[in-house]
Design goal:
It contains six helices and eleven strands. The chain has helices at 3-24, 52-57, 59-66, 82-95, 108-112, 118-126; strands at 32-39, 47-50, 76-80, 99-103, 135-139, 144-149, 154-160, 165-169, 177-180, 183-191, 196-197. The radius of gyration is 23 Å and the shape is elongated.
Length: 198
């Protein structure tokens, strides 16, 4: 076999391999997915509910529930891009905490500067959750703030949601299922780049 024929074969094989890698998504790019399984009877298991209004805010979840772009197996799974993955996992994290009350967006700059001023303290107190000067703020990456006491025990989380600052208890609540409409689902998120699962 002459060199020209060998080069042509190698080129064809290389193009074929690149094609397979691109189709499989193994290009080192962001790769995440949502896996969903519906259950008819959950017995006494715990669950949280996603309202119709919340579902409208998350088209990627609505698309997943409807079965669009699904890979069928025991669990149905659907690929997510990085923005969809971050939005949904932030939303699910928020749903696993108890909502307390909302505060004005005017506090955002002080939160970013780790400042708890008198007005913020009064706002918390008027809602039945007094703060003291022993609290500090830790700013998170994506529009959220943790309020901790001096013993490094997190007390509250503030999330910016639709131009509103919402205050939640920091204690994580375990739920086994998600209720959407009249249906119950087990929903998991996977981010293969970092190997994290929810």
């Amino acid at each position: 076999m002459n060199d020209r024929l060998k080069m042509t074969k190698l080129l064809k094989i290389s193009i074929f391999i690149i094609g397979i890698v691109s189709i499989s998504g193994c290009t080192g790019e962001y790769n995440a997915e949502i896996s969903i399984k519906e259950f008819e009877d959950i017995g006494n298991s715990t669950y949280f509910e996603i309202t119709d209004d919340e579902l409208k805010e998350y088209p990627e979840l609505r698309r997943s529930i409807s079965g669009e772009k699904f890979i069928e197996s025991d669990y149905s799974s659907c690929e997510l891009n990085s923005d969809e993955f971050e939005r949904l996992t932030d939303f699910y994290d928020m749903k696993h905490h108890e909502y307390l009350f909302s505060i004005d967006m005017k506090f955002e700059n002080n939160l970013n500067d780790n400042i708890i001023d008198t007005e913020l303290m009064n706002t918390f107190e008027s809602n039945g959750f007094p703060l003291s000067e022993n609290y500090s703020i830790i700013t998170s990456e994506r529009n959220s703030w943790w309020i901790e006491n001096k013993a490094n025990s997190s007390e509250y989380i503030i999330w910016e949601i639709n131009d509103e600052l919402k205050v939640y208890k920091s204690e994580y609540i375990e739920y086994e299922f998600t209720k959407i409409g009249e249906h119950y689902y087990n929903i998991d998120f996977a981010e293969s780049e970092y190997g994290r699962f929810w």
